[in-house]
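Hi R.,

As promised on Friday, here is the backbone we talked about, encoded as structure tokens. Could you run it through your design pipeline when you get a chance and send me back a sequence?
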């Protein structure tokens, strides 16, 4: 999910750069700030922050013998 948000932020930064606009706040929404936000989100994704639980807590995981298998 964080990688998708990072891709959206990078796309928005590219549009701002291509259209050469500052959205009325040049110090807040410039291309470099949006790229840094995108890099932050991408690094959090690669670090595994937004991946959720990785435990084997699914319904098909059994320890030992499975019930009903003779």
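Update: got your reply. Pasting your designed sequence below so it's all in one thread:
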């Amino acid at each position: 999910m964080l990688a998708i948000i990072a891709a959206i932020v990078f796309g928005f930064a590219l549009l701002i750069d291509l259209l050469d606009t500052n959205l009325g706040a040049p110090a807040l929404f410039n291309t470099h700030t949006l790229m840094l936000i995108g890099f932050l989100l991408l690094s959090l994704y690669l670090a595994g922050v937004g991946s959720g639980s990785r435990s084997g807590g699914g319904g098909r995981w059994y320890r030992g013998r499975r019930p009903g298998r003779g």
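One thing I noticed while checking it: The longest helix spans residues 2-19.

Thanks again,
M.
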